[in-house]
Design goal:
Layout lengths: L6 H5 L10 H11 L6 H31 L6 H26 L3 H5 L1 H5 L11 H6 L7 H22 L3 H18 L2 H14 L3 H17 L3 H18 L3 H15 L7 H17 L3 H19 L4 H16 L3 H18 L5 H16 L3 H17 L6 H16 L3 H18 L3 H17 L4 H15 L5 H13 L25
């Protein structure tokens, strides 16, 4: 039996170091078609990453084959498990390279970050983990159907990883009835997890994710169940303000991972990161801080120091430190995140914009208003270049600029930015918290400017109404206090300074 690397099989996925292969040429054209200045940089980084990954895959393929067929050091059963694992890894790569070759704009824009979500090849040497994995169906007809549907699942997962939520949702929703027809619960659960993760309606998202947990647990698929539970932390806590329920899902996610043979540090990091975001948005930044620091540490341990996912938690860490008034530490975390996304991520992406926005927040707290203004303007320029002016990040930048001009005492300019931020957040923001924050900022600024006081009161009431179903008590108290002391018949000037309510919120990991 030959243990040579299957070059014919690899030719349709990726050929190491061969820019002249038809596959590589198609992928390179896909990057070039985006027209982005950073497209060539993305292509070069992707090329190196895929060369390295396929190199590791090839070495593992030969090693696994020889362990059984040359050295007799492992059974045929173990060889089958390892080869099935390697096949799954290669199909993950194919799902991405298919998107790149097709010139999918989101895929080529976010390629470097997305590829870092590939399952490590080393997993295919962990025999204990492979033996404990959820088995595929034994019925041959069902197995054929499930294997075909898993290709569609990998495509939906790849679309999510390259930040193309619309196409990912379409793919997952089209897959779900076919997955349900097989009655193979792990496939159903994984599909529901994608749908729940991408759904913008928090109630629909919660329903899908709860079903994912149930289906996964019924199949003893603790990894998928724990992932869905981690997603639920953000849905019920971040978007609906149900902190106690978010803490329940965090405990459940960790409990399920305790049963998994292989440490799942990345999923644990998502759990901690999301819970920290929920607690921070509730106003308890002191409690959120150690959790956010733990999320950063877990991601560094599981992914390495330069992974873009580390930058997401560094963004959250910076924002939490900003809220605690620790501007210098916040700026250091923001700078580290920016270094990661510029050197090891994709150029011209929203993650780069996010790094500049958290830098702007930190600089604002430090009173370095001109530098903060420059950061928010970089955010806006980047989003306009990406034709992403409706992205929620634009709302963050506009709100930040409103804060700056209000701190400078120019309420007229501040009003303009807060008005724009409110309009944008009405169209594109899913978080009631951020919608409330901008309404309240606009209300206070309108009052200070001597404008329509009745409208200012109405905006503050609307902000309070948005928060009333949620558990953000500190914010609700701030609005109630303001309303109690500001009436249309009089005007009580506010003391200028740092905003009492944050204009933006920390991000979930997924």
């Amino acid at each position: 039996i030959s243990c040579a690397v299957p070059t014919d099989r690899l030719a349709s996925v990726w050929v190491i170091g061969s820019e002249q292969s038809s596959r590589q040429q198609a992928i390179r054209r896909g990057f070039a078609s985006s027209g982005r200045p950073g497209a060539e940089t993305s292509w070069q980084r992707v090329s190196k990453m895929l060369d390295k990954y396929i190199g590791q895959w090839s070495s593992m393929y030969v090693q696994a084959c020889e362990a059984t067929n040359v050295r007799g050091a492992q059974s045929s059963e173990v060889l089958d498990l390892r080869m099935a694992c390697l096949s799954d890894n290669l199909e993950q790569v194919r799902a991405f390279t298919d998107l790149f070759a097709a010139g999918d704009h989101a895929a080529t824009t976010n390629a470097v970050t997305a590829l870092q979500s590939l399952t490590p090849v080393q997993r295919c040497a962990d025999v204990a983990a492979l033996k404990s994995a959820v088995p595929l169906p034994r019925d041959e007809r069902t197995l054929v159907s499930v294997n075909a549907l898993r290709d569609r699942l990998r495509r939906a997962q790849a679309l999510r990883d390259v930040l193309n939520p619309r196409k990912a949702m379409e793919a997952a929703e089209a897959l779900l009835p076919d997955a349900e027809a097989t009655q193979y619960r792990p496939l159903i659960a994984q599909t529901l997890e994608i749908i729940g993760c991408l759904e913008t309606d928090s109630k629909k998202a919660e329903k899908a994710l709860r079903e994912a947990v149930v289906d996964a647990e019924s199949a003893h698929d603790d990894v998928t169940a724990a992932t869905a539970a981690a997603d639920l932390i953000g849905v019920v806590g971040y978007y609906r303000g149900l902190t106690e329920e978010a803490e329940f899902w965090a405990r459940l996610s960790n409990a399920m991972l305790d049963r998994v043979a292989t440490p799942q540090l990345r999923i644990r990091s998502w759990t901690v990161n999301n819970l920290a975001s929920v607690i921070a948005n509730g106003g308890d930044f002191e409690r959120a801080l150690p959790l956010t620091q733990q999320a950063v540490a877990l991601k560094r341990e599981s992914l390495g120091p330069d992974h873009p996912d580390v930058a997401i938690s560094l963004h959250n860490l910076s924002e939490t430190l900003t809220e605690l008034g620790r501007g210098e530490a916040a700026l250091r975390a923001a700078d580290e995140a920016l270094d990661i996304v510029t050197k090891h991520g994709d150029p011209d992406t929203v993650e780069v914009v996010m790094s500049h926005h958290v830098r702007g927040d930190a600089l604002f707290v430090l009173g370095r208003l001109d530098e903060a203004e420059a950061e928010f303007n970089i955010c806006m320029k980047g989003l306009r270049y990406q034709n992403a002016e409706s992205d929620p990040e634009m709302g963050h930048a506009l709100h930040g600029l409103g804060d700056i001009w209000r701190a400078r005492g120019d309420t007229a300019k501040a009003l303009g930015f807060f008005e724009q931020a409110m309009q944008l957040r009405e169209r594109s923001e899913t978080s009631p918290l951020l919608k409330a924050d901008t309404r309240f900022a606009l209300a206070r600024t309108l009052w200070d400017a001597g404008g329509d006081r009745a409208r200012a009161q109405r905006l503050a009431e609307e902000a309070r109404a948005l928060l009333s179903p949620l558990s953000f008590q500190a914010r609700q108290r701030a609005i109630a206090t303001w309303l109690a002391t500001h009436h249309a018949r009089d005007r009580v000037p506010e003391k200028e300074g740092r905003r009492s309510i944050s204009g933006r919120a920390t991000r979930a990991a997924r």
